[in-house]
Design a protein that fits this description.
It is globular, with a radius of gyration of 20 Å. The protein has nine helices and ten strands. It has about 250 residues and is α/β, with parallel strands linked by helices. Helix 5 packs parallel to helix 6 (about 140-145) and helix 7 runs parallel beside helix 8 (about 215-230). The N and C termini lie far apart (about 55 Å). It has helices at about 1-25, 40-45, 50-55, 75-85, 105-120, 140-145, 180-195, 215-230, 235-245; strands at about 30-40, 60-65, 90, 130, 150-155, 170-175, 200-205, 205, 215, 235. Helices cover about 45% and strands about 15% of the residues.
């Protein structure tokens, strides 16, 4: 009798505890970070991804589908290897044009075509998109909606939260041209965590000195070390969208 009453009390406490935990991790209370790589550069795969994989963090990779296998870009098998490691594979057009300069039909071919390339060639159903150069117009947004993407990322600087627009996510670009100071990066991570916002870190190339969109692997290592040390939750873009309840 006594045992069963203790058992029931425990069940009740577990129930209450579970609800409290859910409240603590609700959107807006504790921030999250996403790690994005745009374009599918081989230098990022070779010099950056091993650091991220060693820490068990999951990234979102925005792939230019018709550049797979070209010089300085990853191969399809490298893309599939990242997918097998739990990284999210996302769409970044077929050929990386300035979308706003294209006709409606050309934009459709770039956006829908990249989805079809991923789906038909490699069985990947991409659900998020990034605008090349952060460039888009009303036709682009309509096309992204029509294709059923759950979200899309710009190259505009800023943080995201539950009031953000799912098709206009902002980010924090890290390269030798903009933010190559680890202190600025760790400050941005700490601010996001403290204020319950969603920080998207955007990388391109890794260890290509002289290239303005490259960053050293040391910066990636220091960023990863900080995320791990601060126990910052790292999410893919599709997980972040769900976390903050964002819909197109
Ligand atoms: Zn790009």
């Amino acid at each position: 009798m006594r045992t069963s009453s203790i058992f029931l009390s425990c069940l009740f406490l577990i129930g209450c505890g579970g609800e409290r935990v859910e409240t603590q991790v609700s959107p807006g209370v504790e921030g999250v970070v996403s790690i994005n790589f745009d374009d599918g550069f081989e230098s990022a795969f070779v010099n950056g991804m091993p650091i991220i994989d060693a820490a068990g963090l999951k990234t979102t990779q925005f792939i230019i589908t018709q550049r797979l296998g070209l010089v300085s870009y990853i191969s399809a098998s490298q893309m599939l290897a990242m997918r097998a490691n739990g990284h999210e594979i996302a769409a970044h057009t077929r050929t990386h044009p300035h979308l706003s300069t294209l006709t409606d039909a050309q934009q459709h071919d770039e956006i829908d075509g990249s989805l079809q390339d991923l789906r038909l060639n490699w069985g990947i159903n991409a659900t998020v998109f990034a605008y090349p150069y952060g460039d888009y117009n009303d036709t682009t947004l309509a096309s992204i909606r029509a294709e059923g993407f759950s979200g899309a990322r710009t190259t505009s600087g800023g943080l995201n939260d539950s009031d953000s627009q799912a098709l206009l996510l902002k980010c924090f670009i890290i390269d030798d041209y903009e933010n190559n100071d680890i202190n600025r990066i760790t400050q941005a991570i700490d601010d996001a965590q403290a204020h319950g916002t969603w920080l998207i870190l955007l990388f391109h190339r890794v260890d290509e000195p002289g290239n303005p969109i490259s960053i050293s692997h040391e910066i990636i290592q220091q960023t990863v070390d900080h995320l791990v040390e601060k126990k910052t939750e790292v999410v893919t873009i599709s997980s972040g969208l769900a976390r903050y309840g964002l819909k197109p």
